[in-house]
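Sequence only, no structure available. Ideas?
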Amino acid sequence: MATRLNISLKTIITNILLGGLVWLLPSPLLAQDDKEAIKTVIAKETSAFMNVDYKSWADTWVKAPHAYWSYSDSTTSSFVEGWDALNKTYAQYFKESRPSHAEITNEWIEIRVYENGAFAHFIQRVKDDIDTDETSQVRVLEKIDGKWKVVCVWAISQNSKNH
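Reply:
I predicted one. C-alpha cells follow.
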C-alpha cells in the first residue's frame, strides 16, 4: 500500500510539474498575436513616412545607437546608422515633403519571433499616379515595454520597368 501511495504521489507531483511547464512553452496564439502586431507596426512606419507624419513615424522606431536604415536601387545605395543620425537625416523630409496618396501593399514572406526580437521579410509594392515601385524589404524589430518597434530597415528596389 505504501508503494502504491508513493507511486500515486509521484504521479500527481509529476503531472502538476509537467502541467505547470506547459504554461512556459510558447503559445502559437501568442506568436500569431506578435506577428499581427509586427505587421501593424511595419505598416504604421511605412504609412507615417509616406504621409509625412513625423510623430507617428518616430513612435515606431527604437531610439538607439544600433538603429539602422538602408536602401538600394539600380542607381544608388545609402545607409544611416543610429537613431540620432536617422532622425537628423529625415528632418528635412518631414519639414518639406507632401503626403503621398500611393497605394501600399505588403506580401509577407517570413516573420520570425525570437523572444523580444523579430525578423520580417516582405515584398512591398507602392503604386501612385506616376509609377509602381517594388522593393524587397527586411525589418528587424525589438519588443520594448510590450510594444514592437523597428530597429532596422533594409530595402532593395527593383526597377519597375523590368516587371
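The chain has one domain: 26-162.
Hope that gets you unstuck.
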